[in-house]
């Protein structure tokens, strides 16, 4: 049951609305941290300080959380500050991932702030000897509606914090009274960024801070045989320490450029063992290699019964390894201060990182303090945890100074965990009315989650130590079949997932398996629509039962009404509901294809998105615009390349992504549903965007490309011609 | 070997004792504690490290600091005058032209450089001027809008 029953009534002109206790549910993080002062504090100057266990990644969550708190407490945005994830200070909310920050953290803050409001009103009622219903709360003050006397939050709390636990029912502010939530409140941090104020972990500076670089092996399983330390010592001015632990190598110097030179010389003066070969058989053979690996299988869905093997249509799709490609390579600062270890990191999970570090370093949890500081956009599990672990090791080896460790571009491109390559096979039967009767889907994939999660062996450096932590295979496999189950109403369905252990390091990349599964599903839906002789919009609508799903599709049709296509251009559409339970998104793409050169220019993209209650409508738009363009880059450009030894996509020349002249115009319509649960929007658009482009390419030139990325030689190749 | 290098940055002169082959980026960030130019690749492929050299956008990640010594260097910090934002900075705020914002330095510096030469650029001129600058969060649409907005006020 979504939404909640709201009853509003007025007493003396002051409206209360409360949600029926049957509709309310406390968010998980609030249940785990029920005290109000775990989430907010009132400061001496009347400001409110809010604590979140999430990290600002550029998704605007610190602003959205401030909006929610300011709304419930009737304060100005400028008077609310947000403290981001920090061990021992903020609640432990696990990972900033899965588009869960609004649903979990912001909602915890909403309930805690509303409960704080109730408490402040009760305190004022007692102090002013007036019933609560006759009180007014505004700008950090409580007063009698008809009177002049006001009390500040400080007056009411007398230096104490509100330690009460939050219990249902909680009186939330009625949505009709919202001043901030749902609006496009500008982000304060963008104001800091334009001025070059210190915002990022890369900007941290401490007195006496020193600089470090690491040297990674030439291959995943190469071992360090020899290092000519003396040569490096002699030739690097300002060298402070060379750190060697098993096959882990680091260099610390006074000055950053000295550390860079140290890194270069270290690379030149070490020898490594031979390593096992990677299956570098070229891009078309990667699919064949992977699909023939031994697998563990799981039946994800079985509904009805597929009785025939004779399908109307079947097709195979492929997605290569793709990388996060953060513009700012990962960075961390670590400081071993007597028996404490302090780490500043852009990790998406400071508590799980602390636990992993504790095990790796054999240090008690209480001796490790991890503070989250924004880095550049990460889009999932990139190098952030690993560089923090590297820095921690260096700090233990060189205590007493803050050590700033910066990964190079090559370190990040070559060692970050990628989004797994995936193969999808779809087969379906249409009945006489052109409706899908049977749907058989199989997906092959490696893991979509190897985050530290408290385990030392998931930290990159841990495999290379003198006493190594051996990575176990597996990891979060559920990500592979995210959105593998169609959201369409199909009577007989069978969905199977097969997990292989691939040659490259993998983990969570924005939307996990959903990007590839939706690419396959929505390309296939278009192929079926053609077989059924139906319009792509109509074909989808006739298979959906959820009105919200139909609404985003109808909205998209409205947005693209009147669009003309000339020879060589085409418009394609796609739909999905992220995780089949979160945001709804429909996307259209208009492309121009030059069949002679094979180039595809995405001219424009449209998206209609329904994320339930929108907290910050501009944040939603921003994430959706950016997500569509990022997906277009994945779809048309990206694949991680490797040779026999290691990754060869080590810079932006060898791993090209969209540049300004590749970027389409974008238009996003937000369907705001204040009465529905708020959902995150960071991963809703990537899947449908890719299929919309592939479908548009088909309409533009008759080529059905099923193997990503859609590169010129595939457009030019005969094999993809419209043949069925 | 360190030697004294004189730099003119954001209207001030500094004498810095540094290895003259150190790329300008690291001197600005470390010796001068500036945050504007950022490390993105060290290969002049991404534009995160852009500075204005005599009013023209240049990457700073490979340029030896010694070769900057006769020139005027301006970073993000030096764009605002007396706490008043430069029109480009103001436009980026108004258009909320950022998600993570890490690439923003390159975008703003390039835009200032562009508008210094071409006060009324069309879409194509804007996109062409940004050919060196990457944005992974993909705030491109907003960045172009911000630059167009700034062009109206410059």
Structure description:
The complex is a heterodimer of chains A (724) and B (154). Chain A is built from 17 helices and 26 strands. With 724 residues, chain A is an alpha+beta fold. A seven-stranded mixed beta sheet of chain A has the order 11-12-9-19-16-17-18. Chain A has a five-stranded mixed beta sheet with strand order 14-22-21-20-15, sandwiched between helices. In chain A, strand 16 (331-337) and strand 17 (340-345) form a beta hairpin. The relative contact order of chain A is 0.11. Mean pLDDT of chain A is 93; it is low at 1-22. Chain B has 154 residues and is an alpha+beta fold. Chain B contains five helices and five strands; from the N terminus they run E-E-H-E-E-E-H-H-H-H. The longest helix of chain B has 14 residues, at 104-117. Chains A and B meet through helix 5, helix 7 and helix 15 of A and helix 1, helix 2, helix 3, helix 4 and helix 5 of B.
Category from helices, strands and their pairing of chain A = alpha+beta
Q: What is the ordering of alpha helices and beta strands of chain B?
A: EEHEEEHHHH
**Helical element count of chain B?**
5
* Oligomerization category of the chains in this entry: heterodimer
Major sheet details of chain B: 5 strands, mixed
Shape of chain B: globular
- Helix fraction bin of chain B: 25-40%
Ends apart, CA distance between termini of chain B: 44 Å
List the helices and strands and how they pair.
The complex is a heterodimer of chains A (724) and B (154).
Chain A: E1 6-11, E2 14-19, H1 28-32, E3 40-42, E4 48-51, H2 61-72, E5 80-83, H3 101-128, E6 135-138, E7 141-144, E8 150-152, H4 153-157, H5 188-195, E9 210-215, E10 224-227, H6 229-235, E11 239-245, E12 248-253, H7 256-268, E13 270-272, H8 283-291, E14 296-303, E15 313-319, E16 331-337, E17 340-345, H9 350-361, E18 368-372, H10 384-397, E19 402-406, H11 409-415, E20 422-430, E21 436-445, E22 492-499, H12 514-532, H13 536-541, H14 547-559, E23 569-577, E24 584-594, E25 599-610, H15 617-637, E26 665-670, H16 686-701, H17 712-716
Helix pairs in contact in A: 2-3, 12-16, 15-16
Chain B: E1 3-9, E2 12-18, H1 24-31, E3 51-53, E4 56-58, E5 72-74, H2 87-94, H3 104-117, H4 123-129, H5 140-153
Parallel strand pairs in B: 1-5
Antiparallel strand pairs in B: 1-2, 3-4, 3-5
Helix pairs in contact in B: 2-5
């Amino acid at each position: 049951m979504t939404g909640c029953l709201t009853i509003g009534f007025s007493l003396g002109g002051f409206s209360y609305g409360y949600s029926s206790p049957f509709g309310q549910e406390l968010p998980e993080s609030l249940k785990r941290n029920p005290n109000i002062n775990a989430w907010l504090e009132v400061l001496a100057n009347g400001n409110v300080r809010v604590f979140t266990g999430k990290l600002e990644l550029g998704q605007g969550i610190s602003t959205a959380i401030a909006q929610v708190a300011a709304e419930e407490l009737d304060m100005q945005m400028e008077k609310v500050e947000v403290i981001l994830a920090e061990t021992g200070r903020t609640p432990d909310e696990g990972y900033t991932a899965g588009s869960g920050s609004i649903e979990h953290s912001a909602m915890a803050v909403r309930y805690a702030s509303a409960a704080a409001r109730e408490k402040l009103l009760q305190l004022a009622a007692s102090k002013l000897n007036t019933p609560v219903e006759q009180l007014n709360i505004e700008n950090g003050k409580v007063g009698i509606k008809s009177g002049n006397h006001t009390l500040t939050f400080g007056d009411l709390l007398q230096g104490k914090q509100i330690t009460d636990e939050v219990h249902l029912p909680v009186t939330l502010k009625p949505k009709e009274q919202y001043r901030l939530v749902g609006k496009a409140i500008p982000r304060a941090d963008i104001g800091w960024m334009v001025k070059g104020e210190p915002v990022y972990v890369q900007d941290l500076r401490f007195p006496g801070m020193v600089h470090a670089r690491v040297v990674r092996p030439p291959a995943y399983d190469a071992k360090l045989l020899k290092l000519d330390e003396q040569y490096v010592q002699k030739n690097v001015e300002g060298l402070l320490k060379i750190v060697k632990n098993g096959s882990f190598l680091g260099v610390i110097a006074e000055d950053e450029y000295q550390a860079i030179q140290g890194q270069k010389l270290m690379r030149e003066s070490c020898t490594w063992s031979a390593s096992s070969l990677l299956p570098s058989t070229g891009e078309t053979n990667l699919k064949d290699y992977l699909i023939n690996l031994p697998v563990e299988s799981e039946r994800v869905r079985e509904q009805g019964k597929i009785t025939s093997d004779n399908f109307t249509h079947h097709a195979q799709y492929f997605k290569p390894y793709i990388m996060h490609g953060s513009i700012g390579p990962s960075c961390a600062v670590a400081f071993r201060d007597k028996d404490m270890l302090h780490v500043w990191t852009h990790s998406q999970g400071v508590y799980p990182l602390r636990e992993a570090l504790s095990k790796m370093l054999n240090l008690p949890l209480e001796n490790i303090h991890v503070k989250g500081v924004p880095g550049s956009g990460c889009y999932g599990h990139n190098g952030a945890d690993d560089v923090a672990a590297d820095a921690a090791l260096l700090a233990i080896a060189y205590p007493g100074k803050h050590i700033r460790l910066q990964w190079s571009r090559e370190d990040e491109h070559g060692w970050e965990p990628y989004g797994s390559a995936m193969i999808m096979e779809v087969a379906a039967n249409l009945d006489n009315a052109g409706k899908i009767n049977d749907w058989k889907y199989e997906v092959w994939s490696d893991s979509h989650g190897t985050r530290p999660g408290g385990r030392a062996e998931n930290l990159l450096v841990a495999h290379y130590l003198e006493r190594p932590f051996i990575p176990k295979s597996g990891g979060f496999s559920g990500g592979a079949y995210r959105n593998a189950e169609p959201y369409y109403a199909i009577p007989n369905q069978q969905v199977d997932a097969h997990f292989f252990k691939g040659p490259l390091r993998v983990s969570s990349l924005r939307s996990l398996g959903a990007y590839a599964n939706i690419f396959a599903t929505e390309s296939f839906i278009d192929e079926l629509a053609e077989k059924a002789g139906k319009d792509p919009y109509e074909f989808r609508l006739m298979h959906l039962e959820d009105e919200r799903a139909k609404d985003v599709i109808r909205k998209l049709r409205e947005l693209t009404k009147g669009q003309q296509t000339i020879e060589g251009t085409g418009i394609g559409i796609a739909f999905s509901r992220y995780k089949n339970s979160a945001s709804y998104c429909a996307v259209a793409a208009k492309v121009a294809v030059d069949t002679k050169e094979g180039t595809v220019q995405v001219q424009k993209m449209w998206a209609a998105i329904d994320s339930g209650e929108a907290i910050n409508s501009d944040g939603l738009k921003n994430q959706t615009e950016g997500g569509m363009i990022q997906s277009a880059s994945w779809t048309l450009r990206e694949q991680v390349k490797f040779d026999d030894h290691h990754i060869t996509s080590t810079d932006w020349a060898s791993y090209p992504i969209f540049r300004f002249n590749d970027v389409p115009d974008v238009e996003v319509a937000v369907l705001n549903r204040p009465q529905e649960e708020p959902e995150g929007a960071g991963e809703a658009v990537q899947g449908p965007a890719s299929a919309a482009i592939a479908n548009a390419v088909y309409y533009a030139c008759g080529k059905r490309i099923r193997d990503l990325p859609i590169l010129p030689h595939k457009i030019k190749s005969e094999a993809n011609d419209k043949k069925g | 070997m360190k030697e004294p290098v004189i730099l003119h940055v954001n209207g001030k002169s500094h004498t810095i004792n540094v290895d003259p082959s150190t790329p300008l980026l690291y001197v600005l960030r470390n010796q001068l504690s500036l945050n504007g130019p950022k490390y993105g690749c060290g290969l002049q492929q991404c534009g995160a490290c852009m500075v204005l050299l005599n009013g023209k956008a240049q990457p700073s990640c490979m340029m030896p600091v010694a070769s900057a010594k006769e020139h005027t260097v301006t970073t993000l910090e030096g764009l605002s005058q007396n706490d008043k934002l430069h029109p480009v900075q103001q436009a980026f705020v108004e258009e909320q032209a950022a998600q993570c914002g890490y690439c923003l330095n390159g975008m703003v510096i390039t835009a200032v450089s562009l508008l210094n030469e071409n006060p009324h650029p069309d879409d194509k001129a804007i996109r062409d001027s940004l050919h060196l600058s990457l944005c992974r969060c993909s705030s491109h649409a907003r960045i172009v809008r911000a630059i167009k907005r700034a062009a109206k006020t410059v």
